[in-house]
Design a protein that fits this description.
The chain is an alpha/beta fold. It folds into two domains: 135 residues, no CATH class; 177 residues, 3-Layer(aba) Sandwich (Rossmann fold), CATH 3.40.50.150. It contains ten helices and 13 strands. The strands form three sheets. Strands 1, 2, 3, 4, 5, 6, 12 and 13 form an eight-stranded mixed sheet that branches. A three-stranded antiparallel sheet has the order 7-8-11, covered by helices on one side. A two-stranded antiparallel sheet has the order 9-10. α1 crosses α2 and α7 crosses α10. It is globular.
């Protein structure tokens, strides 16, 4: 049983800055994911303040190609992307992070518009603070950050817009959803947009395991620390007593499902108490918690996914190695 109400408020007060709604969402995710037969936790739990810092470090690792590859595409093709989307534009970004790559598009757009409204949406207040600070250098851009977990809170897209809206979903975040979940999320975006609005989708393309596995299990162990930090978060926010030293990071390529998978594997038989759930969880040696999947798509799969969600592909940009694709799709009238 999840202890809500007064106990949530008490935990929020003790943690100083973590809101009750977030604590309850963390508790609900832990109850659903850890008290069943197949243990799993949603990837948004990875992005507390420390997790966001670690992920920023991951994006700079030599093994982790997605961020720099997508950034190179945006740097090269920002003008073509903005022109194809059609101006004037308002920008909404799901899973914005620190907006390091998005700055390239906003700088291009602000060179042609007197005023640009940018709404970054993320589960991490830390990342949103970094985005707002970064974009201070663009005086024509107004930043309206929003802490939210999508697709739960896509209602923000129903708000009136003064210009055509371009929704960004970059960083291959779509790969964190299974095919049905990805289609449902994008269909929700499509339903929330007006005719003429568009989506810019960044997707990691399928490639050899020799490239993929090191990107999720780097030599310095930063990704391992990022994954293990999830247990630290549960200890802090739910009063759990995970012994982090008795878990290890595991990353594997699932060729059949075309996805990278991350797990936390118990290295011993153990019992973990989660006070906020009023429950204990047992782990066998070698038992795993599935923490993230990252699907690697083909260009055909991207086109079909968008079509089934209610979008029509208008343009696509790739890097020279064809490792990553940025696709602009228009809402079907």
């Amino acid at each position: 049983m999840i202890h809500t109400g007064a106990s949530s408020r008490a935990r929020a007060a003790a943690l100083g800055g973590v809101d009750v709604a977030t604590l309850d969402a963390v508790a609900a995710a832990a109850r659903e994911g850890l008290l069943g037969r197949r243990k799993h936790l949603p990837p948004w739990l990875l992005y507390d303040e420390r997790g966001s810092e670690l992920f920023d470090e991951i994006t700079r690792l030599p093994e982790y190609y997605p961020t720099r590859t997508e950034r190179a595409i945006l740097a090269r093709d920002a003008a073509a992307i903005v022109s194809t989307a059609g101006m004037p534009l308002e920008i909404v970004e799901l899973g914005s992070g620190s907006a390091e790559k998005t700055e390239l598009l906003l700088a291009e757009l602000s060179a042609h518009q007197r005023h640009v409204t940018y709404t970054p949406v993320d589960v991490s207040p830390t990342a949103l603070d970094a985005a707002a600070e970064r974009l201070r250098r663009l005086p024509r851009v107004t930043v309206r950050p929003l802490v939210a977990r999508y697709p739960d809170e896509l209602g923000l897209l129903h708000a009136p817009a003064a210009a055509r809206r371009l929704v960004l979903f970059l960083g291959s975040n779509i790969g964190n959803y299974d095919p049905a979940g990805a289609r449902a999320l994008l269909a929700g975006v499509a339903r929330s947009l007006r005719a003429g609005d568009a989506l810019l989708l960044g997707a990691d393309l399928r490639k050899p395991a020799s490239v993929l596995v090191p990107a999720y299990d780097d030599a310095r162990g930063v990704t391992a620390a990022f994954n293990l930090n999830l247990l630290v978060r549960l200890n802090r926010e739910l009063g759990a007593d995970f012994d982090v030293a008795r878990f290890r990071h595991v990353a594997r390529w699932n060729a059949r499902r075309s996805r990278m998978e991350m797990f936390l594997e118990s290295t011993a038989r153990q019992r973990v108490v989660i006070a906020a759930l009023g429950a204990a969880v047992t782990f066998a040696r070698g038992e795993r918690i599935h923490t993230e999947s990252s699907y690697k798509l083909t260009k055909t799969a991207i086109r079909l996914l968008l079509a089934r969600a209610g979008f029509r592909v208008e343009a696509r940009w790739e890097d020279a190695r064809r490792w990553f694709a940025v696709t602009l799709a228009r809402r079907v009238s």
